[in-house]
Design goal:
Structural class: mainly alpha
Order of helices and strands: HHHHHH
Oligomer: single chain
Largest sheet: none
Number of domains: 2
Length: about 240
């Protein structure tokens, strides 16, 4: 059963906002204490260079985190809805909710997991301001390559299925393609140029929580979209 663009956007937007709220709560509870610790270490490292008052207070930064996640959720949700509408006849799942879950997995792999594994997030105090444009260019380039690689893998699986290959074999081949593709791209792209002057436990905790937040966002987005597709026929 296909759904209209308007219906796909409504479901996706509701799912994206739900995901943003859940991830906001997660980061406020789990990640903000780690950020506070990283900021404290950064201030100690700069203590010999004079006191500098923060431009934005921590309360304003936390409010900005929530607002930023809501905008993040809305933007990716709208893109999710558009892509779903354009590809719903092409995705191999036989139901709307199944196709939504599959698209969420593809989105997570391409725009979250693969870029993060090469260029993981860093806490405050890590990163040279003079290299920010270069680092952003690397990340965006990897993001584009990741999206292309995941969609090419899905196309391979779809083609194999049409040729009579069993679903398990077709999608196993697609997963293998993603692994090989990612390994080649990771090897060709340069590493992050900035040194990391932060205790290992703080860095590991921050990166782990950042990845958990990304995983949680795409999981809630996919499951909420699937739930709306099953239980909210009025949106169709």
């Amino acid at each position: 059963m296909s759904i209209t663009l308007g219906s796909a956007l409504k479901r996706a937007l509701l799912a994206g906002l739900a995901a943003a709220i859940v991830v906001s709560i997660f980061h406020l509870i789990a990640t903000e204490p780690v950020i506070d610790r990283a900021i404290g270490i950064e201030e100690q490292m700069r203590s010999g260079h004079g006191e500098e008052q923060p431009i934005v207070s921590r309360e304003a930064q936390k409010a900005g985190l929530v607002l930023g996640l809501v905008l993040y959720g809305a933007i990716w949700a709208l893109l999710f809805g558009v892509v779903y509408h354009l590809t719903q006849g092409w995705l191999p799942a036989s139901t709307v909710w199944g196709s939504g879950l599959l698209l969420a997995v593809m989105g997570y792999l391409s725009v979250a997991l693969l870029p993060f594994l090469k260029y993981p997030a860093n806490p405050p105090g890590v990163g040279d301001p003079e290299t920010i444009t270069y680092r952003q260019s690397l990340y965006v380039g990897l993001l584009v390559l990741s999206v292309a690689g995941v969609w090419l893998a899905a196309a391979i699986a779809r083609y194999a299925q049409k040729r009579g290959v069993q679903n398990l074999i077709a999608w196993s081949a697609a997963l293998g393609f993603v692994v090989v593709f990612a390994a080649i791209v990771y090897a060709l792209l340069p590493a992050n140029p900035d040194p990391v002057a932060m205790p290992e436990d703080v860095l590991t905790a921050f990166r782990g929580l950042s990845l958990a937040g990304l995983t949680l966002f795409w999981a809630v987005l996919g499951m909420a979209f699937a739930a709306l597709s099953r239980r909210r026929p009025a949106l169709a």
